[in-house]
Design a protein that fits this description.
It holds the Pfam family ADH_N. Keywords: Metal-binding, Zinc. It is a single chain. By secondary structure, this protein is an alpha/beta fold. Helices cover 26% and strands 24% of the residues. It has helices spanning 39-45, 94-97, 129-132, 151-161, 178-187, 202-211, 223-230, 246-255, 276-279, 296-304, 323-331, 333-336, 351-354, and strands spanning 2-8, 11-16, 28-36, 56-57, 62-69, 81-84, 123-126, 133-135, 170-174, 194-199, 215-218, 236-241, 256-264, 285-287, 314-318, 340-343.
Length: 355
């Protein structure tokens, strides 16, 4: 089969690789229909995730059809259309019993496209299939459902729920990329008073307005002042950090009100300064986190009911074998206007299943 292989920082290729086989009785093999590219994949390509070894197939978000299951798999069967979660869960360790699947100590967590071959391929082996895949409702089978593999549960759990967004709150979202836009969409579940989006890119601020932001501000035009003006100098109740840079994190700390919450979602590759000399007296709560994906069934129900505007985030569509071109477009989002990319196309039969 063909897959997108990481060779070293700055170098990937769409190439022939061995077909996947069942390795454990809890595995499933899935034929990929739709995949997408995550900002974390760009972090890997930039060399920011050193535990990804050369030769690894990238990707941790996909839709597909189950073609084979291990003998202990009970929740899905060949022919089922499924959403592959970005997080794999053993189901038995302490963290899995607490639904903190992202912290799995039984061989799961974020492993697809990191420590095991991932989803940017014609076929993928999915470990712990029963807890790591979700059957797709008939009304949620469009390509936009792939966004529920990662960005929507990440934005919802690590941003909106960790930030405890509530009715009437002023919510500032710093970063209007895919995660920030998904945070805006899911924050609306809780009827905040206003949502303010901050970004450098005009196209992303326009997208934030379409998704539901009440006000937008360019990151280079004193967004803290806009927040002050809209809150009579108080500051935002909840600030969601959706970029992952020292500057964006420090911007969040300047926007939050006394007693407010900062929910950090961005993936940080460099140290950020925590100004405790200013924050200690403000009773500010700061949360961080890796998504656990416990909310995926809820979000799938919302998508099936037409209550989740996932399709608005897909700006580009490619065939699966255009993976390298899609990476180039996604990595130059400021120039191309890319938010999320869907890739899919004709798939050849899995050779090992024909024998």
């Amino acid at each position: 089969m063909k897959a997108l292989v990481f060779h070293e920082p700055g170098r990937i290729s769409w190439q022939e690789v061995p077909d996947p086989d069942l390795e454990e009785v809890t595995d499933a093999i899935v034929r990929i229909d739709t995949v997408t590219i995550c900002g974390t994949d760009l972090h890997i390509l930039n060399g920011d995730v050193p535990d990804v070894r050369p030769g690894t197939v990238l990707g941790h978000e996909a839709l597909g059809e189950v073609v084979e299951t291990g003998e202990d798999v009970r929740g899905v069967r060949p022919g089922d259309r499924v959403l592959i979660s970005c997080i794999s869960a053993c189901g038995h360790c302490r963290f899995c019993r607490e639904r903190a699947y992202g912290q799995c100590r039984g061989g799961g967590g974020w492993i697809l496209g990191r420590t095991v071959n991932g989803t940017q391929a014609e076929y993928v082996r999915v470990p712990f299939a029963d807890l790591s895949m979700h059957p797709l409702p008939g009304t949620a089978e469009g390509p936009e459902a792939v966004l529920l593999a990662d960005i929507f549960p990440t934005a919802y759990e690590v941003g909106v729920l960790n930030g405890r967004v509530g009715p009437g709150d002023t919510v500032a979202v710093v970063g209007a990329g895919p995660i920030g836009l998904a945070a805006i969409a899911t924050a609306e579940f809780f009827s905040p008073g206003r949502i303010i989006a901050v970004d450098y890119a005009t196209a992303r601020l326009d997208a934030a307005k379409r998704i539901g932001a009440d006000a937008v501000a360019s990151a280079d035009e004193d967004p803290e002042r806009l927040v002050d003006d809209l809150t009579e100098g108080l500051g935002a109740d909840v600030v969601i950090e959706a970029v992952g840079t020292p500057q964006s994190f420090e911007t969040c700390t300047r926007m939050v009100r006394p007693g407010g919450r900062i929910a950090n979602v961005g993936v940080h590759a460099r140290p950020a300064t925590l100004h405790l000399e200013e924050l200690w007296i403000k009773n500010v709560t700061i949360t961080t986190g890796l998504v656990d994906t416990y909310s995926t069934p809820t979000l799938l129900s919302m998508l099936a009911a037409g209550r989740l505007p996932a399709s608005l985030l897909i700006t580009h569509v490619f065939e699966l074998d255009q993976m390298e071109e899609a990476y180039d477009v996604f990595s130059r989002a400021t120039d191309t206007g890319a938010i999320k990319i869907a890739l899919g196309g004709p798939i050849r039969p899995l050779a090992t299943r024909e024998e």
